[in-house]
Write a structure and sequence with these properties.
By secondary structure, the chain is of the alpha/beta class. It has ten helices and five strands. It has helices at 11-22, 36-46, 62-71, 89-98, 110-121, 130-140, 157-167, 172-179, 183-197, 202-211, and strands at 2-7, 27-33, 50-54, 79-84, 102-105. It has a five-stranded parallel beta sheet, sandwiched between helices. Strand 4 (79-84), helix 4 (89-98) and strand 5 (102-105) form a beta-alpha-beta unit. The longest helix has 15 residues, at 183-197. The radius of gyration is 17 Å and the shape is globular. The chain starts with a strand and ends in a 9-residue tail after the last helix. Keywords: DNA-binding, Phosphoprotein, Transcription, Transcription regulation. Residues 148-213 form the HTH luxR-type domain. InterPro entries: CheY-like_superfamily, NreC/VraR/RcsB-like_REC, Sig_transdc_resp-reg_C-effctor, Sig_transdc_resp-reg_receiver, Tscrpt_reg_LuxR_C, WalR-like. Pfam families: GerE (PF00196), Response_reg (PF00072).
Length: 220
């Protein structure tokens, strides 16, 4: 059973998402919160598998809440998915840097929303859609003094290849096909890269791939 916590200051949004989730046999909504501070308290109490958190909220916004979740070892099993609107590129990227597994636009189709919750619960990053890659690429194309550098050498050649493919939105199975290895081996390469780079999840691996220059944003 996938346990989900909803954190959004708009009751109508929470009600709509809860109605969808409650129809699924393998998903249970364990709680709701109206701001990041309340959400953190419930997270520590309920320890859900997935936390759907709005980026912009009163008291504590979603990005700060995500940073605190990522810094709390007791919440290591919680996969954060940010809820956002179009036209918020810098917020989306900061959410990924903070430790979010990905983001969903609030007008997402119901079937895509449910699929995304299941993907997040598995520990995969919600980074396959072209829109997400476009947002990351656009943000990273801007000069930034906070780029990560000098850590590529800790990865083996195969691990670099696997991370670069993950940054392009490929799943473990697709990485395996591309590198002509088994899915289990592909997963091992990704997991070892995460360990070496101290990445919380695949989303942070993707951020690293762009910031380190391992992957270059298209058009840059």
């Amino acid at each position: 059973m996938i346990r989900v916590l909803l954190v959004d200051d708009q009751p109508l949004i929470r009600t709509g998402f809860r109605a969808l989730l409650d129809l699924e046999d393998d998903i249970e909504v364990v709680g709701e919160a109206a701001d990041g501070d309340e959400g953190l308290a419930l997270l520590r109490e309920l320890l859900p598998d997935v936390a759907l958190i709005d980026i912009q909220m009163p008291v504590m916004d979603g990005i700060e809440a995500t940073r605190r979740i990522a810094a709390d070892s007791a919440l290591a099993g919680v996969h954060v998915v940010m809820l956002t609107n179009y036209g918020m590129d810098e917020y989306v990227f900061e959410a990924l840097r903070a430790g979010a597994a990905g983001f969903l636009v609030k007008d997402i189709l119901p079937e895509d929303f449910l699929h995304a919750v299941r993907v997040a619960a598995r520990g995969d990053a919600l980074l396959a859609p072209a829109l997400t890659r476009k947002l990351i690429g656009r943000y990273l194309a801007q000069p930034s003094p906070a780029r990560i550098g000098g850590r590529l050498e800790v990865l083996t050649g195969r691990e670099r290849e696997a991370v670069a493919l993950a940054a392009q939105g490929l799943s473990n199975s697709e990485i395996a096909d591309h590198l002509v290895i088994s899915p289990a081996t592909a997963k091992t390469h990704i997991n070892r890269a995460m360990t070496k780079l101290h990445a919380r999840d695949r989303a942070q691996l993707v951020v690293f791939a762009y910031e380190s220059g391992l992957v270059t944003p298209r058009g840059s």
